[in-house]
Specification:
The protein is α/β, with parallel strands linked by helices. The protein contains 8 helices and 11 strands.
């Protein structure tokens, strides 16, 4: 009964994937939009194909437009040749919705035989550096990333990115969290570049980071509006009777 109720609130709609054991990468809006920028770059670099979407009653009532065409705000892309699947979102996920959405995503991952899972996000610091912080759901993956990232000794990963990691841990799924260091909420392609370098090193990808750096200014302009939305939603919410929602 609970499962039926959950599925009525969060639905994954995708056509059959060609990948047998894909690397699955998640990028949701957050600090610096690091996950969004990195995932969009991966989609473009690998020429990935649109395979489906995630829909939910938790999402705000809106339509996403690209060149006049309507797209779903949370989309699934695939490169069958490279065995890579990317889930990218144009909308922030409210904390109260993260648990249910993460559960559905974690249920879906074994059905597509995900080999490894990567959750990309940002972490705000005042150091002025562009390090990548990492964590994993098992010791084997931690060993793979320990020389490529700054390993969290003690800390928390908030929002949908952290919730995905928790659900993967509970199910014994091999997942890595990569957090790009950024000075603030504004779009930060340079943090995304550093995360992309880690993906290249750990998972044997061959993504062109120079191209992403060259597009930094354009990306910052295109995503500045979304960054303002993220910044607004991070402010303490005034209690309201209706369900609080980003938008």
């Amino acid at each position: 009964m609970a499962s039926e109720s959950l599925e009525s609130f969060v639905k994954i709609i995708n056509e059959p994937l060609k990948s047998k054991n894909p690397l699955v990468i998640f990028g949701f809006p957050g600090i610096g939009l690091v996950g969004n920028i990195a995932c969009q770059h991966i989609i473009e670099e690998l020429g990935m194909k649109y395979r489906g979407s995630i829909d939910s009653r938790y999402f705000p009532p809106l339509a996403v437009l690209f060149n006049g065409l309507v797209y779903m705000p949370v989309r699934i892309y695939e490169s069958g040749e490279k065995e890579v699947v990317v889930v990218i979102s144009d909308i922030p996920i409210h904390p109260t919705a993260s648990y249910d959405i993460s559960k559905v995503l974690a249920d879906w991952l074994p059905t597509i035989n995900a080999k490894n899972i990567v959750s990309i996000a940002g972490i705000a610091t005042t150091t002025g550096e562009r390090r990548v912080f990492g964590g994993a759901t098992n010791a084997e993956l931690l060993e793979k990333i320990k020389d490529k990232t700054e390993i969290f000794q003690v800390g928390t990963i908030s929002g949908i990115s952290g919730s995905i990691m928790t659900e993967c841990y509970l199910r014994g799924l091999p997942a890595v969290s990569l957090l790009g260091e950024t000075p603030g909420p504004n779009p930060d392609p340079r943090a995304a570049v550093e995360v992309t370098k880690v993906l290249n090193s750990v998972f044997g990808m061959d993504l062109d980071t120079n191209k992403l750096l060259g597009q930094a200014e354009q990306i910052e302009l295109e995503l500045s509006k979304l960054a303002e939305q993220v910044k607004t939603t991070e402010a303490p919410a005034v209690p309201r009777k209706e369900f609080p929602m980003y938008g």
